[in-house]
User: What shape does this take?
Amino acid sequence: MTSGELKRAKRDVRRRVLARRDATDPSARDLAAASITARVLRLPEVAAATTVLAFSSFGSELPMLPVIEALLGHGVVVGLPVIVEGDIVARAWRPGDPTTQTSFGALEPAGGAPIDPSAIDVILTPAVAVDRTGRRVGYGGGFYDRFFPRTRADALRVAVVLGEQLVDEELPAGAFDLRVDAIVTPDEVIRCPQAAAGGLPAT
Assistant: This one.
């Protein structure tokens, strides 16, 4: 697949899956957030984590505040991404801390202590679409594909998505598109192949 074909294929996925996600009822997304929060907290890597990178949801994304509040309630340091010169910088954040709004609608910490990528145990990762092998299609910026290699090899990458964003077909991916290790939806936890190969049980 050429670079142009890959871009077109990803664009088609985004159009199709975002339309499906946008059609979900907001109250259903709130219920989904409660279910996903419970499943995230039951992950053994999260139970053992001291630092988790979450993300600020926007538009029709899964509401992330319940997950963030639950993690903080368990004494976990929670960071949010800030985009600086095209790359993710993680900064500590708690509800009520000042934020600024990005051009695409997500909130970023206006301050907050920087978090070294090597200190992050779990990366809760946004996606437009994800397949069962851990391939993900994001919004097209490549931020997480550049950020993942800066974290520890044992840091768990978890896509947290609505069920409408999990697709059965293999998603288009290039050489620089990195997979997640696990996927959490309101209905299931999926351990992706490379995670299972490392000895983690499928759930």
